[in-house]
Amino acid sequence: MSDEVLRFEELTVDFTVGGTTQRAVDGVSFGVRAGEVLAVVGESGSGKSVTALAALGLLPSNARAGGRISFGGADVLEMSRAELTALRGRRIAMIFQDPSGALDPVFTIGAQLVEMIRTHQPSLSRGAARERAIELLRMVEIPENRLKYYPHQLSGGQCQRVMIAIALACDPELLIADEPTTALDVTVQQEVLDVLLAMRSKISGAIMIITHDMGVVADVADRVVVMRKGAVVETADVHELFDHPTQEYTQALLDAVPRGGPRESTSVDADVAALRIDDLVVEYRGRRGRTVQAVGHVDLLLNPGEVVGLVGESGSGKSTIGKAVLGLAPITSGEVHVAGQALTSSSASDLRKTRARIGVVFQNPAGSLNPRGTIGQSVGEPLAVHGGVRGAELRRRVEELLDSVELPGAWAGRYPHELSGGQRQRVSIARAISLDPGLLIADEPTSALDVSVQATVLELLRSLQDRLHFACLFISHDLAVVDQVCDRVAVMSQGRLVEQGDRESVLRAPQDPYTVRLLEAAPVPDPREQSRRRGLRLAG
Amino acid sequence: MTDAVLARTLDEDVIARRGVWVTVRRRVLFWLPLAVLAVLLLMAIVPQLFSSADPRACDISASARPSSPGHPFGQDLQGCDVYANVVHGARASLSVGLVCTLIALVIAVGVGTVAGYVGGWADSILARLTDVFLGFPFLLGAIVVLNSLGKRSVLSVSLVLAVFSWPTLARMVRTTVRATRDAEYVQAAKAMGFPTTRILSHYVLPNSIGPVLAVATLTVGGVIVAESTLTFLGLGLRAPSISWGLQLATAQSRFQQAPHTLIYPAIFLAATVLSLITLGDVLRDAVNPKGRS
């Protein structure tokens, strides 16, 4: 078709890993039309990023590509190194996931913008390039005095907007954004997406956005390509896709997006709270003796068997509260009671006994298991250390635990790197419940996982909680996830609790303006709702 | 991506039969250096097995003569048999190299782990302490210490060399331990209330010691040569001691006239270091679960 800027035709990409060849992209064909926003959506391993990298000739050296990628009448796969260099940046620009990693930390953002402009337009004088840099910054809504700032002086969202400015410096025909907002908070994500969409009217080119988030797709896309295991599953207009998905996989993907629903509370009335936090203050000593208050005067109560969601954006202090309970953060003032036991006034041996009653699941399933130990050793270690269980009895208990998280007991001999992310998180959960804890602290347990995997892990957590009746402090940035699993919700902002209460009252009828903003910024998988919200934002 | 592929292709029966030994057993790069080291070790323990000639029976009239029947490696400046000297020198050189590295490693792991794991003021104090040792001129220090010791044995020379080689290793241990300390699995272990000794021995050290061991194997060679430097200054093992270092020290000034006196001991030194490095690499990969087949 003539109006297509970029077209993939039967693209295949093979990776050679340790002598075997793995097909990452298998016969992918789709086109990006001029002026449109095309979303490529899929889970990790679906080949969406590899496809995008192939369009820029940026595949790693162990990859071999076949098929055809036509851009402006030429085949990208056939291009020489010099032709590719001319193509990148000038005609196709790319934005990556991690904005602070993509900017050079030793130069000011102004210097980086000017460099980009002058590399591709050598005829421009330094002064003219500076003028253009200021204009670009204004376009992405960053004040021009920030030109002299270094990347570390800007927030993540600002860095990503600078990246967009750099990408747009040469007015490219195509902008590829690979998970541009995944590393950002929801309110910041909204700002970046707004800027990205505003760009659309100002530049002539098309935008190809790669994401795993159906909410983002609903928010920005005109057309959607759904990928799975290296192949295109479905290509459709955004409204059509969300209203009438023709493929089973698309339907499954949409269903896996967490949505709240009515649920029985599992809270048990008891005299002793599973966790009581009174007026907790956590301060860190920063540089030059300055103290930084991470958590300020927080009160929180968890009854036995109750799941409480602690929501907030990065830097809000939600994880610090979890760490303070676990003894990984200093308690400056206030008191934390776990099952009636005060943490600050306990002896070391009492403290150890209390710790054994707390299970913990961390965010990064790859990082929270000892890479040198088998998963059997990891799961059994709390039993061995705190319970003194040994030998055959230990092996039996480990098998039971693995069984309870729906992993084969024979897997005890595997190492963490031989498991997928979701499986590793199941191992973490098995380890957390090994001592039958009264309290489970789950710090962003699913945010590193794909949506479909996230759905199964959440379900597992729920069913275990129903069976074992532990209280759970569920720390998350994702309101939809919290909506799905929690009985009560507490919202944090800048180290303070701004609102807490029943799930229904906080999430359906929020009182605090911050909660309202948070709820509105979280994209929902419904294109009509998203465009309505955007209209309201732009009007207001 | 690679991890996911691995996870899928793993058979259950493969899991049952794998471990350090199974991985290492089939590798030539494990057996070859092991054989070389075994021969060298045997040489150090019973040199008579390899050479019946007396290394101290010298014929001054045959000074610096190249290889001839009865003297496969030739003769050195004093007319002593080079082969016999190389064989009899293995004991002193290997002991100095291994003992010194071992002492340095023990000090380094101790100091580095405390500095890296505890951090704060302990880190500052220990960092300054290592700086003092690093800043002290090696030769000056060795001269002072060895002169005041009087009697020089393999142990005293090793100790002096260790005193000056542990700070570099300790700095490395500190850096790797620091990086591991903040890893999530260590945080997880702390959160589960495991005792500190267990966290150190099961979590921190196994995950941080790899690069340090690699550098330590290199240190062995460096120490053997350093011993020769001391000897050259009249401070190391004294003649009538025999060591590769001594041979290298005396041979280096006459390299042009009698290259064989330098080359043969150097080959033995190189073989030792190379075997240690290769063996260290193979073992490091085998001990790491990700490196196993």
UniProtKB/TrEMBL annotation, chain A:
GO terms for biological process: peptide transport. It is a peripheral membrane protein. Keywords: ATP-binding, Cell membrane, Membrane, Nucleotide-binding, Transport. GO terms for cellular component: plasma membrane. GO terms for molecular function: ATP binding; ATP hydrolysis activity. The keyword Chaperone does not apply. It comes from the Bacteria. It is found in: Cell membrane. This is ABC transporter ATP-binding protein.
Automatic annotation (TrEMBL), chain B:
GO terms for biological process: transmembrane transport. The chain crosses the membrane at residues 28-46, 94-118, 125-147, 153-173, 212-237, 262-283. Keywords: Cell membrane, Membrane, Transmembrane, Transmembrane helix, Transport. It comes from the Bacteria. The keyword Transport applies. Pfam families: BPD_transp_1. GO terms for cellular component: plasma membrane. The keyword Cell membrane applies. It is a multi-pass membrane protein. Residues 90-280 form the ABC transmembrane type-1 domain. InterPro entries: BP-dependent_transpt_permease, MetI-like, MetI-like_sf. This is ABC transporter permease. It comes from Kribbella soli.
